[in-house]
Each structure stands twice: as structure tokens, then as C-alpha cells.
Amino acid sequence: MQAGDDATARAEALAALRERLREVLGSRGYTRKDIVRRSGASRIPLSATTISQALNDRHPAPTLRTVTGIAQAAEADPETYRQLRELWHRSRPGPDVAAPAPCTDVSAGPGSVRLAGPALLQVQQAPFLTAGPVTAFLTPYYARPHDIDLERLLAPALDGKTSCFVLLTGDSSTGKTRALFEVLLRLAPHRRLWRPTHAAALADLLGNGLVAPGDVLWLNEAQRFLQGDRAEEAAAALRELLLTRPGVVVVGTLWTIPYWEEFVRPPESVGAPSHVRALLEAPVTHRIAVPAELSEAQHAEWQSLARSSGDPRMGQAGRAGAADGRVVQHLSGGPELLAAYRMGPGAHFTPAEHALITAAIAVRHTGHWAPLTEELLAHIADAALPPRLRPAEPGWAREALTALVTGARADGRRTDIRKSLTALVPHRDTAGGPTTYGPADYLQQNAAVAAAAAVPGPALWDAVTAFTTDPAVLMHLSYRAREQGFIKQGGVLLRRATVAGYPTEWISLLLATPVEARERAEMALWMAHHIRWESAWDMRARLLELAGEGADASLRLAVRAVEEVDVSDAEEVTHLLRALRDLGHESLLIDRDPAGLIRLSDVSCVSDVLGQLLEYGYPAPAARLARRILADRAALEHPPMMLGLVVAHRLCPPWCEDGKAMFSAAASRVDLSGDIEPLLSLVEELKKEHTEAARLLALRLADAIDLRDTDFVASSLYELRELGMTAASRRLAEQAVPVAELEKPEAVGWLLDELRYCGFNDLVAELLRRDPLAELDVGSVKKVVLLLWALQGLERDDLVRRLLLDSMRYVELDDAECTASYLDELARVGRPQTVRRFALRAADEVPPSEVARLRFLAQTLDREGLPEALDRLARRAVLAVGPYSHGFVILLRTLREHGLTAHADALIERAAAHRDVSYAVRRTGLLSSLRAAGETEAADRLESAVPPPVAAAKDPVKPREASPYGRETDGTPAAPWTWSDLDAVEAHLASRTRGRTAATPGTSPAASATPR
User: Fold this and answer.
1) How far is the C-alpha of 904 from the C-alpha of 874, rounded, in Å?
2) CB-side exposure of 264: number of CA atoms within 13 Å?
3) Is the preceding peptide bond at 213 cis, omega within 30 degrees of 0?
4) DSSP letter (8 states) at residue 996
5) How far is C-alpha 116 from the geometric centre of its chain's CA atoms?
6) 1004: which residues sit within 8 A by CB, 6+ positions away?
7) In angstroms, rounded to a whole number, what is the distance separating the alpha carbons of residues 44 and 25?
């Protein structure tokens, strides 16, 4: 196929994909707001903007993840899901997987483990000795028990079975990355290998659907993908991929402390969503702990391998780790690097180099996970160096950093360990891009506390505040600062995060500011000026948050929202209009004339806007929009749009010359394939203007209903009957009665009721001639009872008796109240022996903990003279109900009402011995409820069963209360401050950081810390 033809075919496939997505939403009757809500509860959360762009022909093609998320939220069937995936793949250019050359993209791949090699996959090189013949990059591999577990978990997925994510956790330099490299080199040397570099790259890779069955995803240092910008999105997409597609292998490494423990820690707020935690707790995720030390037996095997291999590095590591078992760490040179650092400045490292290393370790210790810039490290190192040791050269920091990441100084002297292991590691997102830095893992894990204590606190926090630009990192630093008591610094960091684009919520700003320092009006105005939003839905939430914080802030944010909204985008307009209406500022948006500017292609949202204009009392703009819609004749096929036009014709000034012709055309052309609710609303509205059009539409609707769906037929008969559409009701009933499915007892009962209410007695008889009782799928007693009631209404005791006797052995007694109704009817038409057998079965099977429903069954058993069954039911209920206010009191009263005193006493004694009785007595309204019900003795008995609370010992020395204003970053107590003071703090620090930093030209850092 020629390139032009190929592009045309892709464009046609993309158009077909969007059209199919719109059909899926229309057929299920879901609005975009519904999809946003439903996707939030699923494994693929989607924003309103993402959905809008996926359906809009003027936007770039949606990702496969977006298409999958929409299909799942709309409950598409498997065939539709297959069609959507096929169309998406046809709309994409074919992947070029020819020669996997060295890749500099942020999501490098596809390559393979063999082609990438150990260096590219970040396997630490075993340092070379100063003498000896060895030139291999890696030493011979010593396999340990975790290697067996690793191969056992990966092999099935590599064979095409359930996908898996295997995560090796442990300390730094324990062989985690080497273990992954070795197992893949054995099992999957030539499989396609993807190796993204950060969370955003992983999210894009998965969103574009590039990872296929048989591929391997390499996530070394997995904290890069599980925190930061888009980490939640990437985690959700990865979990979805692993759970829904077989044959995908994902491997990664992670420090146990702090990363693993932090990621799996339950959230502070109940119900807080975490797709990262959900991924790590998923059944497809497997954690393998890699031990830090070798046992004595393993050490002996290591030494044997060292002798047989002839590699002197193995022997040296074995001898160095003989005492503590940390052989693998010595192999990588980690302990030597740590020793060199601990020698202090002027030994292995120059003072400037040592200060930069210390700065990098200290910054990591604050919780800053992103790569570190030269300016940030230079500012901290400059403050840490004594004046006499500060370099005179302007480019001192860059020269020292280059020496630390390359291992060689300009004069040829070395900074690395055995020409391999460097103290700092460089990071680049792309070839030729700016260099950022991070400390060597082994140093970070073993020197963090000492390094943090060695740098001045003010300089450290000034630097991370001034030179950090990632909003997610800034917000995390804000939390960490407040945890350490640096409340003011935390507030500055939160402000910086908000300005950088973090979607800060108003409650977060309040919680970060002490009550004594709050100035709510000024804070709300600041938020109104700086808050960002990611979607129209998010924007609406921000508006409503500030609604109660004064008119000035509310108005300012409303003006910003109106200025920034795309008035041609119907979805954005409808969300903003609804939010502004709640605030009383909708006129701000209407003055921008969305009625004349919105694109009409998004039919659903355009109809929402028209409905809002009518509801909010703006007839002139509504009429203008209605004229535009009517000019596009396709609108007559869309039920919600047509409904809006009909309402507009009634409420607005004359805007349509021939309304009756429009109504007739709409009734004959409107699309009937979507949700029935807007169609019924349209019938109701047409009745007010044009009765014949309403009847025509109702008849068309009766012809379009799925006649085999008995529930749907019955509900449609009800709606048409309520609308007075007798002819349509009759047509629907006549067509449905011969073919409706008769398996569901509740649906059959509903249909019989509706036929009776409509007065179609001949059709009732016709339906009964089909013998619906012969086809029933009995199921729950709740469903059977609905059919019983319908047959009672027809006064067909013969059918009632037959239904009871036929279903008695198979009906599921999952509801005590409905079981009581069933038993009442059985007692009326059945033999006593039959009634007794069923009563005993009911007493044994109904859910005993639903006490409110249990009362009805107890009444029936007592009324029918069935004491044995009543006794059994009471015994089960006593065992099932604990001392909780509502259910306990109801059960106790029920037992008393039916003379079951022994069971009532047993219930009280069980409650008195219950493990939760203390909580029930002290924290709930149990005692007051019992006394209100006249059960004073029971209340006294339970109260006596609870021991009195033990009074806490008084502290003879009253502890000094912490200041609400927190501490300065140098550890001294902070003086009282207010929100307004933070402006001066930022301005003061801006000048300080500019004066002391080694910033490159053009750098304009914002600042943050406390004036000295």
C-alpha cells in the first residue's frame, strides 16, 4: 500500500473508531459525566477532557487505554470491545521494530535483553582491580534461592499464561538488578524489551498500547515509576494490562526502606484511592525479598566459584565480606565508596566534591525523589563549605560534578572506586539534554542521616524550595517539611507547588496553615488567582470549594474560569455553566455568547447547554442556540436535542416559523436506538404542543422495543400508560405477549400487572395460555413473591397454589420478609404438613442477622402456630446478632413479643460476654435505646458487664506544648506569623538564592525560606 493510501486508511479507521465509541455511549444511554464517574470506580480513571477529546474529530487520536476505559465504563460487550481494539490498531501506523539501535527516547524500546546488555540495563559493574588479567564487565554469577523463585514466577508468563509483575526488594547493592538480568538472559534473551525512564514515559507507553503479549517491561529502580507526576495513571494502566492481557512480563527493583514500606502503607484518610498500592497488592504482583548477607554455607560456595572461575574480583569480595556476610556489596565496591566518603573532605574527595555529594544525599533525605540540578546542589554545597575552602572559579560546581559522575578529574586523578563506581549518577531524559544528578544508592542508604546533619538546614530547605519545579515533588516536600515541624516552610512549598500546577484543594491549604496564621479571605483570593485545574469537572470542583469563602474570591475565580474556558467546547461550557449557576455568576459566561459559538458536533453536550439556558431563565440565548441547532437537520434525530428544541419552542420568544412541521418531522425521524428516558420525556413534552406528533412517536417507540425483554416491556407499558398513550400501549402489548421471555418470575409478574392495569384482559388470558409457570427460573424468594402477588391480583388461586408447590423445594430463602409472605400464601392454599416442612426449612435458611425483616417471619410463624420453627429461628438469631444498638434492641423486643423469654435472656447474656460490649455500651446509643424500649433490666445488666475505665496516670510535669507556628529551618522556634507574611518570606529568599547560587544565565529561581 502506498503511503498516501495508508494514511487515508488510518484516518478512516480513526473516524470509524470515534463513531463506534459514540454509538456505544448512545446505546447504553450514558452521558460523558456518567463515564467519568463510572471510570473513576474502575481500573482506568478518565477525566472529562480525555473523554471529550477521544470522541471529538478535531483532537488527536485517543490512546488504547482511553478507548479501553470508555468501553469498560460503558459496559461494552466482548464483541464491541474487540471491534474497538481492531479499529484502534488499524488507525495506528505500523510499529517499526527492525534493528533495535541504541535508543535515547524516554521510553526506550523495543530492544532485547541481549542487545541492551548489562550496562544499558543499569547492572552495576564489578570494579576492576589495579592488577590482573580480568577484563569482563561482569563476574561469574552466583545463584541464590531468590533466583529459583524468580524463574518459577516468570516462566508461566513467558509461556503465554497469566501476566506477572515480579518486584525484587532489598537494600542497595545486594544484586537485585543483576538477578533480573540473569534470569531474562536465560529465559527471554530475544523478547521485545521496553525500558521507560519515568512515570510519564511509562504512562505514555501503556496508553499507546505498545506493550504486547510476549514483551518484557524493565522497571529498574521502580520508585521512578511509582511516585511523581502521572504515577497513579501509570500504575492504573499497568495493573489493567497485567490483569487483562496474558503473556506480559514486568520486572523491577525497589529498596525495602523507605520505598516499599511507603508505597504499601495504608493511606491516612479512609477511602483515599491509590492505584500504586492497588498495583503492588494485585494478585499478579509478586514481591521477592533479596537478602543483604550470605549465609556461611553460601559464602563457602561463593569462594569455591571464585577459585574455579579465576576472577580475582570474586575472591576479593568474598574475603572482604567474610565477617559480615555482605559479599555482594563488596563486589560492587559499595563499602569502599562509603569508606572513601567517610574519610571526609580533602582525602579521596576534594572539599567541593565532598560538599556536593553531601548535598545530594541530604536532599534525597528530605523526600526529594526527582533528579537534582546543578543549581540546587551548588547552593547547598556553597553554604556547607567553610569560607576558606570555597572555590574561586565561577564554574566550580560543574567541574566538580563532572568529575564525580565520570570518575575522572581534569588533571587525570580519579574520583571513582576502582575505575567503576562513582559517587554521583548522571540522569538525562534524552541524548544531549541537560544533565541532572543523584547520589549512588549505597551512599544514600548508608550515609543519609550523617549527610543531612552536615549541611545547614536553612540552605538545604532554601535550595529544595527555590530550585524544584516538579509540582508533585514540591507538594511532597511540603508534607515532609510539616512533618519535621517546619510549618512555615511547608506553607511556602505548598504555594510553590500550586503555582507550578499541582491541583491543590482548598482543604489542603487550610490544613497546611495553622489556625492562628490563617487569613481566610486573603488565602481564598490567593487560591482564586493561582489554582490550576486539569479538566472542566475539576474546574467546577475548585469553584464550589471557594463558594463559601467570600464573594471576592468566588467572583475572581469565576472570572478566571470564564476567561480560560473554550466557549466553543460544549462539554467545558456545560460544566462551567452548572458551577457558575450554583454561585450566581452564570451571566459571566452567557455574556461570552456560548450559544452562538459552541461547536454543534458534540450533540449530547450541546443539548445539555440548551437545557441549562432554558432552566436558568435565559430565553434569548436559548432561542439563538435553538435556531443554530435546527439549521443542522441531523439534530432532529437526537432525542435530548429534540426535547430541548420542543421546550424552547414553548418557553422562548418565537424563533421557529413552522413549529408543527418541526414536531412532526422530529416524531418521525428521531433516533430510537438509545436510552428510552429522553424519548418518553419527548413524548410528554410533545403532548403539550402537538398531540398527533406525540402519538406518532409513542407508536414508533412501541415498535422499537425489544419484545423478548420482559422487564423492559413491562416498564415501557407503565410509562406509556402514565402518558396516556393507549394506542401505543396496546400495540406494544399485542406484539410482546406472544414472544416475551417467561423465565424471570418477577418480570412475568410485572407484565401481568401492567396488562391488568391497562385493561387488556384478553392479553392477560393469552399470556396465561402460554403457561408461564412451566418456564420459570425460580431463584430468589423475592422474585417469586412478586409473581405470587400478580396472580393474587388476577384472583387465580389455582396458579398461586401451583406456583407455591412447584417452587417450594428450589426457591432461595434469601429474604426473611418475602419468605414470610411466601409462607402466608402457602398456609392459605397448602396442607398443614407441607406448611410445617417449609417453615422448618425457612427457620434454618433465612439470613438471621437481618433483624428488621426477621420480625415479619416470626409473626407469621407465631400466627400459624409453628412453635418449633419459631424456636429454631430465635436460636439462630441470638447467635448471629451482637450488642449493636438497632438490631439488638429490635431482636430483643421481637423475642419478648412472642413469649420467647429464654431466648431473650440468652441474647442479653451473650451480649454481656461479647468482646465488643465495652464499645457498644460506651460509644453507641445501645443503653439509651434499651431503656427507651422499656428494657431497663437488660440495659443495667450490660452496663454492669463493662469494667469502669482506668484513669490515666497524671504526668507530674506538664509537657511544654509545641508552638502552632512550628520551627524555623535552623531548629529555633518560629515567631508568630500569618499567611500574608509568606509573601515577604518568598521575596527575601529569592534574593538570597540568586546571590549565592551557581545558576546558569537565565535562571530565575523563586525562593522560599525564612528570613534570618
Assistant:
1) 9
2) 14
3) no
4) H
5) 34
6) 994
7) 17
Amino acid at 702: A
Distance CA(675)–CA(698), nearest Å, equals: 14
Spatial separation of the C-alpha atoms in residues 594 and 608, rounded to whole Å? 12
List the beta strands (DSSP E) in 277-326. Answer: 285-289
Residue 483: CB atoms within 10 A of its CB come to 10
Rounded Cα distance between 538 and 534, Å, is: 6
d(CA 776, CA 743) in angstroms, rounded, equals: 4
* CA–CA distance, 151 with 286 (Å, rounded to integer): 12
**Residues 176, 457: Cα–Cα separation, whole Å:** 34
Task: Say if CB 652 and CB 633 are below 8 A apart.
Answer: no
Per-residue pLDDT tens for 324-356? Answer: 787 887 787 777 888 899 999 999 999 999 999
Average pLDDT of the residues in 745-757: 94
What share of the chain in percent tops pLDDT 70? 89
How far apart, in whole angstroms, are the C-alpha atoms of residue 270 and residue 261? 18
Contact present, 741 and 709 (Cβ < 8 Å): yes
Strands (E), 433-558: 436-439
**3 state SS for 202-259:** HHHHHHCCCCCCCCEEEECCCHHHHCCCCHHHHHHHHHHHHHHCCCCEEEEEEEHHHH
Distance CA 424, CA 438 (A): 6
Query: Do residues 489 and 465 touch, judged by C-beta distance below 8 A?
Result: yes
Burial of 86 (0-12, 13-18, 19+ CB in 10 A): middle
**Separation of first and last alpha carbons in the chain:** 71
pLDDT digits (tens, 9 = 90+) for 45-88: 676 667 777 777 766 778 777 787 788 788 777 677 777 777 87
How far, in Å, CA of 967 to CA of 490, rounded? 11
* Three-state SS letters, 37-94: HHHHCCCCCCCHHHHHHHHCCCCCCCCHHHHHHHHHHCCCCHHHHHHHHHHHHHCCCC
Taking the alpha carbons of 381, 384, 387, 389 in that order, is the dihedral positive or negative? negative
- Cell 463506534, located at residue: 20
**311-316 contacts at long range (C-beta below 8 A, 24 or more positions apart):** 311/134, 311/136, 311/139, 311/140, 312/129, 312/132, 312/134, 313/126, 313/127, 313/128, 313/129, 313/134, 313/139, 314/139, 314/140, 316/129
β-strand partners of 285: 165
- With b for 16 or more beta-carbon neighbours within 10 A and e for fewer, the 420-459 pattern comes to bbbbbbebeeeeeeeebbbbbbbbbbbbbeebbebbebbb
* Sequence-distant (≥ 6) Cβ neighbours of residue 629 within 8 angstroms: 600, 606, 610, 635, 641, 644, 645
Strand partners, 372: 437
Enter the C-alpha cell of residue 566: 473554550
In three state form, how does the secondary structure of 704-733 look? HCCCCCHHHHHHHHHHHHHCCCHHHHHHHH
Cβ proximity of 726 and 749 under 8 Å: no
Q: Give the count of beta carbons closer than 10 Å to the beta carbon of residue 832.
A: 11
The C-alpha atoms of residue 420 and residue 404 are separated, in whole angstroms, by: 11
Q: How far apart are CA 158 and CA 183, in angstroms?
A: 12
CA dist list (Å): 202 to 65, 169, 227, 252, 530: 12, 20, 12, 13, 29
pLDDT in tens, 830-856: 899 999 999 999 999 999 888 888 999
Residue 747: closest CA among 802, 799, 781, 784 = 784
| C-alpha cell belonging to residue 976 | 508568630
Which residue type, as a one-letter code, is found at position 8? T
Q: Which residue has the cell 509545641?
A: 962
